[in-house]
Write a structure and sequence with these properties.
Layout (H helix, E strand, L loop, with lengths): L3 E9 L3 E6 L2 E6 L2 H4 L8 E13 L2 E9 L2 H10 L7 H7 L4 H10 L2 H5 L6 H11 L23 H12 L4 H14 L6 H15 L1
Antiparallel strand pairs: 1-2, 1-4, 2-3, 4-5
Helix pairs in contact: 7-8, 7-9, 8-9
Length: about 210
């Protein structure tokens, strides 16, 4: 299984990029919400990938779907657990920034979800029913780069801090977010619950 790929961008298409990797060209499908954050043509990029085989009666085709980091890939993997949404459909549906889609799911914003390519009213309701309350941490994704570091008071806090740093929050800001979330709900049992508490806290402040 191909878990990551690095190479020079030769060409960007609507839903994919062509990467040159040691003289071999690879087509990697990219959601539009991720595509807009990629560097320009002829620049190097490193992607984490979701690798699967698309089958039809006569052949099986290996497909790579690329993301800038593991958190985006994790959201994609949650998104395709919704009935009727396969990997290729999800690539087209995720046409807006992932944090915006996550916020729409968490708030039950059906109108926003219906605006995504291939997502009708029934599918939007199924997305909310399946994922609402489970995608808070993805609403925390932002674009300012910050190198990951490690430290926290507990294992749960340390794991949550690591995720926030991957989401490109500054260390001091992430620590404060976690501290406030723990004060608000000291009974959180795991990092997922803690990150959802951080998300709810930020949403209440906005």
């Amino acid at each position: 299984m191909i878990c990551s790929i690095s190479g020079k961008i030769l060409k960007k298409n609507e839903y994919s990029v062509l990467l040159s990797v040691h003289g071999i060209g690879y087509e990697v499908f990219i959601p539009a919400g991720v595509m807009r954050s990629l560097p320009n043509d002829a620049e190097e990029v490193s992607l984490v990938t979701y690798h699967y085989h698309q089958s039809d009666p006569s052949k099986s085709i290996p497909v790579l779907i690329g993301f800038l980091h593991d958190i985006e890939k994790e959201f994609f993997e949650k998104f395709i657990t919704v009935s009727g949404i396969g990997p290729k459909a999800a690539v087209k549906a995720l046409s807006e920034p992932i944090p915006d889609i996550a916020k729409a799911i968490d708030s039950g914003n059906l109108a926003y979800l219906k605006s995504l390519p291939g997502i009708g009213a029934q599918r939007a309701r199924e997305i909310v029913a399946k994922l609402q309350g489970k995608v808070g941490k993805f609403g925390l994704i932002q674009s300012v780069a910050e190198a990951p570091q490690s430290a926290a008071a507990t294992d749960v806090e340390q794991e949550a801090l690591s995720v926030l740093l991957q989401l490109q929050y500054k260390r001091q800001e992430a620590e404060q977010m976690i501290k406030r979330a723990m004060q608000r709900n000291p009974d959180v049992k795991n990092a997922e619950d803690l990150l959802n508490e951080v998300y709810r806290q930020r949403t209440a402040q906005s």
